[in-house]
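@channel sequence for tomorrow's demo:
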Amino acid sequence: MTDVLPTGQEDWQRLDRRMLLVHPIKEVGRFFPALIGVFIAGSQTGGDGPWFEIVGVALPIAYGVLRFYTTRYRIADGRIELRRGLLTKHVLSTQLDRVRTVDLTSSPIHRILGLTTVRIGTGTASTKGEDQLDLDSLPTAGAQQLRYQLLHAAGTSGERADASAPLVARTVVRFDPSWLRFAPLTSAGLVSFAAIAGVTSQILNGVGFFDQGHDIPGLKAALWLTVTVGIVLGLASVSALAIVGYLLTNWDFSLTHTSTDGSWHLRRGLLTTRETSMDDGRVRGVAVGEPLGLRLGRGARLSAIVTGLDKKQQGTTLLVPPAPRQVVDRVAAEVIGTTTPLEAVLTSHGPAAIRRRWIRALALPLLLLVGIGALIVFDDASAWWLLLPLLGVAVGAGLAVDRARSLGHALVDGWLVVRSGSLVRRRELLQTDGVIGWNLRSTYFQRRVGLTTLVATTAGGSQSYAALDVPEARAIEVARLAQPQLIEQFLG
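structure tokens (generated this afternoon):
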């Protein structure tokens, strides 16, 4: 395998010397709260000279310098290895064919110095930063070449293209400034609006706005005007912050496909740039996310289902940020190579599943309505309190209708399509060849009405994709048609 890897990397190597300017600064930033305490303590000791403060700053700088001299990496014998640590040696090693994704990240200081951090995704779950296989920092050109070589060596195809062949990249989609209109419609924007509405209602309740005995002339009109202006300003602020965040994250976004090595490359970021690469052979499907706000604006987002990634690495699978729905559908069709599963008519799950949507959406609001109604009748509570459960009933009914309309599945041309949700609706398209198992899960209430949840398990993405509340006979039939060789042995 060394014939496709950069020459001279079989021996242990240091990272780029320019990291001596990167890590000391990063360590000072990490220890900044402690340094403030050091400076305060130094000023209280009354000692002569700033030696206490100098030592406090010198320690994290020295630690950053030591990271350079104690960090080595190499690629040899079909493995990539990273060794670091002074008193305690820490060695990370993985086979090249375990490489799933390669991310390139450049913070502002990295970009100034022409450096890049290479993060290698292997699908192994880790909870500590020290267990991540990161090469920080490498020259940008060398990092890009290393990314190509790692993906090339980890490719699933039996025949690999010539590593010296020129890269032929085709741009599939690029950032469009008109996409900024979707920034306030994301989940973060809607949550911020809900928070503003909640705070506003608490303030109004505190000043007695909902008190029927409030009869000061003109006061309520002034309060209504203040509330209206406050909500408008709050919405404007939330929208502006959402747009700024969208720009910082997705500026210069581009998704390209390289035919030479058969891989997808995503680049985005204004201050900190990030590049993610995925091998064609590991992409098993796509997921179209349609939060309620994006759907109202006819938008969506797209992510890839990539084999071998643990749940903590799902963020690396983004393909298209919030964008027009037609753009998302076009890119999804290019990634999976067909439009058939995108255009498939979904099978309804029947009246029993629809009733469950209504019961689950209206149970709590109706209980609140009954309880508050009893308080009004027997305890002379204010009738204004009825607004809350009545609003809950109205919202619950809307959610029930939307959830029932969204629920469905399809099995077409080797693709399993499942869709569910309302506030966060997802349509997931998964190759049946990528399914490694089927689970039928049912609660007591599902069993009473003959429903079950069909779960397709896979080594990619979130590792499980569920069709909710499917009639049991239909669920078994879907699993059998998708993979008869796997299911028939249990049905015979």
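heads up for whoever presents: Residues 335 and 374 are 57 Å apart (CA to CA).
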